[in-house]
Amino acid sequence: MRFLVTGGAGFIGSHYVRTLLDGGYPGYEGTHVTVLDNLTYAGNRANLPAEDPRMDFVRGDVCDFALLRELLPGHDAVLHFAAESHVDRSLESAADFIRTNVGGTQTLLDACLATGVERVVHVSTDEVYGSIETGSWTESWPLLPNSPYAASKAASDLVARSYWRTHGLDLSITRCSNNYGPYQHPEKVIPLFVTNLLEGLQVPLYGDGRNIREWLHVDDHCRAIQLVLTQGGAGEIYNVGGGNEQTNRALTDMLLRLCGADADMVRRVPDRKGHDLRYALDESKIREELGYAPRVPFDRGLADTVAWYRDNPGWWKAVKHPGGDTASYVTGTVLPVDGGYVNR
Ligand code: NAD
Q1: Which residue's CA is the closest to the ligand 1 atom numbered 33?
Q2: Which residue has a Cα nearest atom 21 of ligand 1?
Q3: What is the pLDDT of residues 148-177, one digit of tens each?
């Protein structure tokens, strides 16, 4: 077996690849992987083994049809993680989000058709549904994305579904809630807050902190993706929720506790534009049809994640302060740290 994993140098894709290579998916121990990733600011070669006889790393763009056409023959399945993934960046400029998330998905799927790839999983997000005050979304809920990031993912879901409906491509879509775990870029709320606290810096909390997100450990998300890959139906969509709702304020309090910091380390910053209040998924479909259930309890997963960042300063300092220069991260990227990277 050989899989092609787009965006495999990012947070979730690299977790999938490491787990697959480590034999974490029974029956797939001998699978070879091609990682296709163009190493944007979010992609990190250090997230993957330096060398593994079962992994090939290709630095390339998911929008490059000629490259995909050359690479894809011989692959049994494609797992499509590559995306621009940070909401706050999409508020500053949406162009890369439309290009990669929409155009890249269309290009990839055209190349899958052209080369006869037999199975595709398109990895998407709960944010395509918008915001919900009470209850939870099933897969048939209307798509009402509120940020350019969410809109680009919703568009990519519709493109993906159309390639199943029109061309008969054997493709499934997953829509997952907020992920956390090791190797997540420190622009996202949990690693940002943890690494700030480890550096003795305040953490920027958007607005009154009452926005609610549902959290899932990256290992549970990747196990769900593997289940969908191997047992999911063509043209089907599967919600993957954590069932663990937290306000940003409650999450912040947990992180303060785990890092041994006081409430005065929190600084309120103006709320994000168009900030979704609450995300909540109904995941009964994947539970009932594929037998999925998350395994990592939030308390333990969060404590382990904080411990990982504490134990791996070399990894996050190289990402957060490229060239060892604190200022270059704070002021040189799209948004200043103080702007508050609070949610993905
Ligand atoms: P990430 O930003 O950590 O990784 C994205 C990866 O894609 C990076 O390695 C980047 O270099 C690569 N990439 C970006 N543009 C590319 C291009 N044009 N060509 C090739 N590679 C490109 O993101 P993540 O958090 O790992 O998310 C992975 C997927 O899961 C995304 O599709 C995202 O929408 C989805 N998702 C994420 C979450 C979450 O909480 N992080 C939750 C649900 C769904």
Answers
A1: 85
A2: 37
A3: 999 999 999 999 999 999 999 999 999 999
How many domains does the structure of the chain reveal? 1
**How is residue 112 written in tokens?**
């899958």
Between the CA atoms of 124, 86, 148 and 153, what dihedral angle is there, to the nearest 10 degrees?
-10
Ligand 1 pocket by Cβ (under 6 Å)? 6-7, 9-13, 37-40, 42-43, 61-63, 81-85, 100, 104, 123, 125, 153, 176, 178-179, 185, 344
pLDDT digits (tens, 9 = 90+) for 211-235: 999 999 999 999 999 999 999 999 9
User: What is the atom index within ligand 1 of the atom nearest the CA of 7?
Assistant: 7
- Looking at every residue in the chain, the average pLDDT score rounds to 93
In a domain, 157, yes or no: yes
User: In sequence order, what DSSP letters do the residues of 211-257 get, joined into one string?
Assistant: -EEEEEEHHHHHHHHHHHHHHPPTT-EEEE----EEEHHHHHHHHHH
Taking only the tens place, the pLDDT of each residue in 57-102 is: 999 999 999 999 999 999 999 999 999 999 999 999 999 999 999 9
Ligand 1 binding pocket mutation candidate from 15, 40, 64, 333 (most atoms within 8 A of CB): 40
Instruction: Look up the CATH number of the domain holding residue 239.
Output: 3.40.50.720
Q: Is residue 343 part of a domain?
A: no
In a domain, 341, yes or no: no
Q: How far is CA 46 from CA 85, 288, 306, in A?
A: 19, 37, 19
Active site residues: 126-127, 149
Q: Is the pLDDT of residue 330 over 80?
A: no
In a domain, 228, yes or no: yes
- Residue pointed to by tokens 């940002």: 192
Q: Report the atom number in ligand 1 closest to the C-alpha of 43.
A: 9
Judge contact between 113 and 163, C-beta under 8 A.
Answer: yes
Q: Considering Cα of 210, then 211, then 215, then 218, what sign does the dihedral take? A: negative
C-alpha 210 chain-centroid distance: 23
Prediction pTM value:
0.95
pLDDT of residue 325: 60
Helix, strand or coil for residue 332? helix
Its domain, for residue 159, covers 1-331
